[in-house]
Amino acid sequence: MKFSIMLRISSLLSILYIATFCKPNDPEPFVAVEREDAKTIAETRQYNEHQVPTSIRITDPGMEGVFKLDAGDRTTPDNMGTVLVTVNGARYKRAFTGPGIATWFGVTTSDDDIGPELQNAVNAVDNLVIPDGSYTQQTTVRLRSEMTLQGNAGKVMITLPKTYVSLANAIDASIPLKNVVIDGLSWTVTTTETGTNKFGTIYIDSPSVTNLTVQNCSSSDVAARDSTNWFTLKIPAGKTADNIIVRNNSVQAKRMACEIFNHDNPSIYAGKNIQVSGNFFHDSWFGISLSGPLENLTVDNNHIKDCRHFGIEIAGAARGVKITNNKFEGVFDKFLEGSNDGGGNGSLVGGMEITGNSTIGTCTGGIQLFNGGAVTFAKNNFAMTGMLELFSSTKGGTFSENVIESSANKAVICDNSADHTFTGNTISNKNSSVNQATFMSYGSKAVNNTLTNNKIFKGRGGKYYDGVEGGTYKATMNYDESGNPLP
């Protein structure tokens, strides 16, 4: 028994002795020599000399640059673009000022998927430029805080043949996204994947977001199979979004060009200070949709064309809304759909500001304002097939110096909507073949609507103004198209 135990111990010691001699040697310490060598990236990685240069000038086309030895670093991984690691563990780091260049990391026009290389680049540098050219991306790139991703507007085209999502937030929803700029990129979405219509080419879902700007970009998914957004920002339960800017972009998206929504934080204004301005959104279901409890929204100077449902939609308890200087063109169900109700009951002090907007030609569609509060509706010029419809808790609004031309049987209807003042407007449905009333107060709650000093042009038959089903109005000093006073 004792001999057996001694034999086992002896065998174990022999194994440990042999293992000691078989253990790989640690990299030999290197000695830095003050010189600069010219090498390719492959040659640098294979370098295994005891004496290493303090500087290496990389000669690979598109990746050229000077890399400096960081003798104290033995852990940073090789990413090709800004860090190179030799066989003996020496770390060389690119010396540069200004933005990083995506080609440093292997992002090339010949690559069938720039996603992995672009991800390395995004992880490595705070300001990254993609050079002019046409690229292919099949895997999604995850954004991080404190970064800018940019290209020359109209000269960097990224085709998405497999994924609908080019750029997204980190998978870990606990990681906030702060101080991010996406500037000057273009996309063509051609994937035939299905069942993904909640996504967007730029898709932010889960983290809290602060200071996000998307500008000077363009995109089209007309060749894709499914109906998706271009820009999506979802604010989940317990998260926030603040200072979001979407400007100067040109986009066709089968579903929504720009959707920002807060549906999981009931009665909590988790989205604040949102600006959508200077964009051309066209041939989508919706051009702009901002919905849920959001506040301080500015939708300014956009050109919205041929969005078959809504051009601009403000929905679900938004407050502090300004819709200014936008142009609408083409075919819609409603080119402007608005709700600015605070708590959903019209109790908000003040209301939407809708000023300086216009149509290009005559738009198919009309305008609906639900729960608009005391809306300010001024100096708009709309020619449309539909009507201006005021509903629900849209109450106490001021409508002044507008031109509202409609071919519907009513140009303006206050549907159980009260206490509005119309002054100095031109209101017309003279091209309506069957006119009920150019202006109508409809329903028992549609009371105390006042019209003063307006030009009112009615269509065939019907009345200039009317109160129906208990609706009332007061009209004084109004004129027909010939300047004759109306009773």
UniProtKB/TrEMBL annotation:
By its UniProt entry, which Pfam families does this protein fall under?
Answer: Beta_helix
Q: Which residues cross the membrane?
A: none
Protein's name according to its UniProt entry = Right-handed parallel beta-helix repeat-containing protein
Domain Right handed beta helix stretches: 208-382
- Which source organism? Spirosoma soli
Gene3D superfamilies assigned to the protein according to its UniProt record, in alphabetical order: Single-stranded right-handed beta-helix, Pectin lyase-like (2.160.20.10)
Organism lineage string: Bacteria, Pseudomonadati, Bacteroidota, Cytophagia, Cytophagales
